[in-house]
Amino acid sequence: MMKTRIVYSEKCLGYGTWHIEGPQRVKGAHEILRAKGYEFVEPTPASDYEILSVHDADYLFNVKKGLAEDSDTPAYKDIFEFAQLSVGGALLASKINGFSLMRPPGHHVGRYGAALGAYTRGFCYLNNIAIAVKESKKRTLILDIDGHHGNGTQEIFQGDDKVVYLSLHQSSNYPGTGYFTEGNCINYALPINLGGKHYLETLDKALGMVDLTKFEAVAVSAGFDTHQGDLATLGLVEQDYFDIGKRVAKLKKPAFFVLEGGYVGEKVGLDIDRFLKGYEENL
Ligand SMILES: [Zn+2]
């Protein structure tokens, strides 16, 4: 059985120790996955050319110069280099069908910054998964299982006939978008602490709406803040991530995975392991 490789560089731990989107969440996950015997590969930074496939040139300039800042998303020193390496992680994951365990996350940031009327970028600087999907040039189903709606990803791909964006997320939470399905963007806004059974029923229903013959690849915005007690909880537990991974395998398409949220380090590591086991054992 193939084992999904984890894309990781410890350089991603170098900023934001005081922030909830801090290094500990990824450091803890890395330690658990290393102990479980996963193989790791190092990303290289994305180029401007790749980033500009999704982002506006003025926005990129502002991130580089430390001029893009909001109350959730500080202009840390050298944040562009961290963001550029995180995009590189997603690009490598798409090439090797791996799992990018990098930060900062990306799904809240749109072409010009804050997306669809959200007032912050929600800890995101560059939209990692969107850039990886654009650069792959493949017809892709993006499945966003983070507990928050990926407003940036929706904004970027709204009306794009090569992509369907499908998100299950908690209602009444940041960024206050994703309440309705709009064209190629299918949204399920779900109640807090919904629980695994109803979550998986909803996921089955949602995937059932998608014409899989249209797609060459699946990209998963893999957030784990739906875990019980986490920032956008839907009351999921470890076993539920196994069952989600299994459903991704059943789509029978080449897949890759990009970390989004999930704020309790040890839980994130265990959830990723269960998710990947569910995926690999059902390929
Ligand atoms: Zn989230």
Draw up the topology in text.
Layout: E1 6-7, H1 23-35, E2 40-41, H2 48-51, H3 57-64, H4 79-96, E3 99-100, E4 109-110, E5 113-114, H5 128-136, E6 140-144, H6 151-157, E7 163-170, E8 185-190, H7 196-208, E9 217-222, H8 238-250, E10 255-259, H9 265-280
Parallel strand pairs: 1-2, 1-3, 3-10, 6-7, 6-9, 7-8, 9-10
Antiparallel strand pairs: 4-5
Zinc ion binds next to loops.
Summarize the structure.
The protein has 283 residues and is of the alpha/beta class.
Your description of this structure?
The protein is built from 9 helices and 10 strands. With 283 residues, it is of the alpha/beta class. Helices cover 36% and strands 14% of the residues. The chain has helices at residues 23-35, 48-51, 57-64, 79-96, 128-136, 151-157, 196-208, 238-250, 265-280, and strands at residues 6-7, 40-41, 99-100, 109-110, 113-114, 140-144, 163-170, 185-190, 217-222, 255-259. The structure holds zinc ion. The site of zinc ion has 8 residues, from loops.
Percent of residues in helices comes to: 25-40%
Placed side by side, the strands forming the largest sheet appear as: 2-1-3-10-9-6-7-8
Counting DSSP H or I runs of 4 or more residues, the number of helices is 9
| Quantity of strands, as a count | 10
Average pLDDT number: 97
The biggest beta sheet is recorded as: 8 strands, parallel
Roughly how many Å apart are the termini? Answer: 9 Å
Low-confidence sequence ranges: none
Radius of gyration (Å): 17 Å
Bin the strand percentage: 5-15%
Shape: globular
Order of helical and strand elements: EHEHHHEEEHEHEEHEHEH
Output the structural class: alpha/beta
Oligomer: single chain
Bound molecules: zinc ion
